[in-house]
């Protein structure tokens, strides 16, 4: 190690398993308090404004390969399998919550009455109560509860395409009761009955869940939706804008937003949006609409928004999102102020050709938070993405921390100059005056990587005179100098009083 000046604080190195040109990690002892963050909604987990949540049956991978996946980067983890219970994220499909009425789109079979107005609400709620207790046995456990009912939509006019059967059969139901009605008259009555029944079953199910398990954040998957799916029809002039009529229709659902305790919009991508500007527009408008709606119930305490995404494209299960796609989905959601991202997967995700996850396709997009314990010392780490669009956020997350750990790719000589400029720009901020800095040059295992002396020179670290600063050359891939770095940081943290 080359010491530029003795550092009297502490930090932490996050072991990256993917290439990164310039990234930052902010660390603080748990006994210390970070300054308040200027975020859109209150963190649902203290000091964690953006959560990474895993909602896929990865236990199938473990059974098949014998490899236990490291899921420590995720705040909440839950499987989508029907047999999984007691998880801190629970997904209620139609067959897992009461007697949800719907029609099988393949066979046409009516299940539980088929139409909302033919369901028996009392029976449904009785069964739903049993199901909620089965899947969420604990009254104390905090987590997410997501109801995934997609067969019909509570706003009548939105039941287009294959869902039109709910409108047609609702009209027929009215006409069977009164043969004297015209189709137009029957349609008016059918619309009123359908929407009233749909509202009742959705609202009462939601209220039951909140009453039984108030420590869960309850909401419906894909609500709200923006219906900005015209990127195929209009690829060159696509704006992603939510049409005014769809915003008005979302406003008709204020009864749902007022009772929900979280929102769960979706930003799944098709290959038509692969690595494109249109993907960014698609995601941005959907998340912004959810954020708008999050203020309906309380303008000063908006609902948390957890955005559902997938690591693969919806129309090609075997193709994973690229880094650009991850920035356009996870990164965009984080930048807009979502409370977290839910990475969803079904059986198809765990049954792809390779049976493996590609490590170099999972960069830090936005920010992650994790805790690392060594002995009796626990360190809280903010892992901040190095992409240009997130650099304006660095200062905000650096305020009030005990140390800044700045990681550069020591083997990418073309980007060292940019890394130097970003580092000096950051520490020149008046609010960050005096905060110690630890510089880590990663990838020392690669030929031509800069050593510690070269890093000090190239990054002009000797010019930094207003704080303690030191430099390590490391290899996260080979775990070279990782443990000694951590030990050094912990030893110096013992003299730090908060």
UniProtKB/TrEMBL annotation:
E.C. number(s) listed in UniProt: 3.2.1.35
Binding site for GTP: 386, 442-445
Residues forming coiled coils: none
PROSITE patterns named in the record: ARF, SAR1
Entry keywords, A to Z: Disulfide bond, Glycosidase, GTP-binding, Hydrolase, Magnesium, Metal-binding, Nucleotide-binding
Any single GO BP term: protein transport
Pfam families: Arf, Glyco_hydro_56
Molecular function, one GO term: GTP binding
InterPro entries per UniProt: Aldolase_TIM (IPR013785), Arl8a/8b (IPR044154), GH (IPR017853), Hyaluronidase (IPR018155), P-loop_NTPase (IPR027417), Small_GTP-bd (IPR005225), Small_GTPase_ARF/SAR (IPR006689)
CC annotations in GO: acrosomal vesicle; late endosome membrane; lysosomal membrane
Predominant place of localization: membrane
Gene3D superfamilies attached to this UniProt entry: Aldolase class I, P-loop containing nucleotide triphosphate hydrolases
Localisation per UniProt entry: Late endosome membrane; Lysosome membrane
Top-level taxon of origin: Eukaryota
Binding locations of Mg(2+): 364
PANTHER family assigned to the protein according to its UniProt record, in alphabetical order: HYALURONIDASE, HYALURONIDASE PH-20
NCBIfam families reported for this sequence: small_GTP
The protein, known as: Hyaluronidase
Native species: Melopsittacus undulatus
Chain's gene name: LOC101871905
């Amino acid at each position: 190690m080359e010491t530029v000046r003795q550092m009297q604080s502490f930090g932490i190195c996050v072991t990256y398993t993917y290439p990164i040109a310039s990234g930052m990690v902010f660390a603080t002892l748990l006994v210390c308090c970070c300054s308040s963050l200027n975020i859109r909604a209150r963190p649902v987990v203290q000091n964690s404004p953006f959560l990474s949540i895993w909602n896929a049956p990865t236990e199938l991978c473990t059974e098949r390969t014998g490899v236990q996946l490291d899921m420590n980067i995720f705040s909440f983890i839950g499987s989508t399998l029907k047999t999984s219970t007691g998880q801190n994220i629970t997904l209620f499909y139609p067959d897992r919550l009461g007697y949800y009425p719907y029609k099988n789109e393949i066979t046409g079979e009516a299940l539980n009455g088929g139409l909302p107005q033919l369901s028996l609400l009392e029976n449904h709620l009785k069964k739903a109560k049993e199901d909620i207790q089965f899947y969420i046995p604990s009254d104390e456990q905090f987590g997410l509860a997501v109801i995934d009912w997609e067969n019909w939509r509570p706003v009548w006019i939105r039941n287009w395409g294959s869902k039109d059967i709910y409108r047609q059969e609702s009209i027929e139901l009215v006409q069977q009761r009164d043969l004297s009605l015209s189709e137009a008259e029957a349609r008016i009555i059918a619309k009123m009955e359908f929407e009233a029944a749909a509202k009742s079953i959705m609202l009462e199910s939601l209220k039951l869940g909140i009453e039984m398990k108030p420590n869960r954040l309850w909401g419906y998957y894909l609500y709200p939706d923006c219906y900005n799916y015209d990127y195929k029809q209009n690829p060159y002039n696509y704006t992603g804008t939510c049409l005014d009529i769809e915003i008005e229709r979302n406003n008709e659902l204020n009864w749902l937003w007022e009772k929900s305790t979280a929102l769960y919009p979706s930003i799944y991508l098709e290959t038509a949006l692969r690595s494109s500007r249109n993907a960014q527009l698609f995601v941005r408008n959907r998340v912004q609409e959810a954020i708008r709606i999050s203020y309906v119930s309380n303008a000063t305490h908006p609902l948390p928004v957890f955005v559902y995404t997938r690591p693969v494209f919806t129309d090609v299960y075997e193709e994973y999102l690229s880094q650009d796609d991850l920035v356009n989905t996870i990164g965009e959601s984080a930048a807009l102020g979502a409370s977290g991202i839910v990475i969803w997967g079904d059986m198809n995700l765990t049954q792809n050709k390779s049976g493996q996850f590609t490590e170099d396709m999972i960069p830090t997009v936005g920010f992650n938070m994790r805790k690392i314990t060594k002995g009796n010392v626990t360190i809280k780490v903010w892992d901040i993405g190095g992409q240009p669009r997130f650099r304006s956020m660095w200062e905000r997350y650096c305020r009030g921390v005990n140390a800044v750990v700045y990681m550069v790719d020591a083997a990418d000589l073309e980007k060292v100059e940019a890394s130097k400029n970003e580092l000096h720009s950051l520490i020149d901020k008046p609010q960050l005056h005096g905060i110690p800095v630890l510089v880590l040059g990663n990838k020392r295992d690669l030929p031509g990587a800069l050593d510690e002396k070269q890093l000090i020179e190239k990054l002009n670290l000797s010019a930094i005179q207003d704080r303690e600063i030191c430099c390590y050359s490391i290899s996260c891939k080979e775990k070279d100098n990782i443990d000694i770095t951590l030990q050094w940081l912990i030893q110096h943290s013992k003299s730090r009083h908060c």
